[in-house]
Amino acid sequence: MSDLKQALHRSLQQSRAGLLSRLTGLGEYDLRRPLTPTGTNLLGLVKHLAGLEYGYLGESFARAAPEALPWVEDGSIWQNADMWVKPEESGEYIFSLYERACAHADRTIADLDLESPGSVPHWPEGQRDATLGDLLVLMVAETAQHAGHADIIRELVDGTAGGDHDEIFDENSWQAYTGQIQRSASEFRDAGP
Q: b/e map of 86-113 (b: 16 or more CB within 10 Å)?
C-alpha cells in the first residue's frame, strides 16, 4: 500500500471507530430515537454509512455487496430509508452490517491502487467516473462528518461527551464555560438576523 493510501485508510478506520464508540452502552431506544428536527439518530448514521461503504468502496468497482440492502433494492433509500432503523432491524444487525460493509471496503482498498478507475452508478451521467483515491477521500469525509454527528447526538442522549471531555474541564468548569457562552450569545437575543 502506498503511504497516501495507508494514511487515508488509517483515517477512515479511526473515523469508523470514533463513530462506533459513541454508541457504546446505549439501549435500542436511545440508539434509534431522533434528536434533531431532521430525524438524525445514532443507528441511522451507522446504517447509512454501511450502505456508503458497500456502494462507494464496493459496487463502484464492480465488487457487489455480498448481501442485499432492502432499502436499496426497493428504492426507499431515495426517501431516506437508510437514515433510520425499522423495528425489525435490531441494533445487533446494524452493527454487524456495518462491520461486514467495512470489511468488504477494506478488501477493495487493499486490492486496488488509488488510481484504479471506478464508476458511481447513481451519480449523474457523464460525472460517474472516479478513482479509488477519489472515493476513499469521499468516504473519509463522510465517515468523519457522521462521527461528528454521532458525538453531538450522544451528548444529547445522556450528556456523554467525547473522549477528551474530562481532560479539558471538570463538570463545574464545563458549566461555567457554557454559562459564559450563553451570556455572550444572550447579548444578541433580540438583535434579529
A: eeebebeebbebbebbbebbbebbeebe
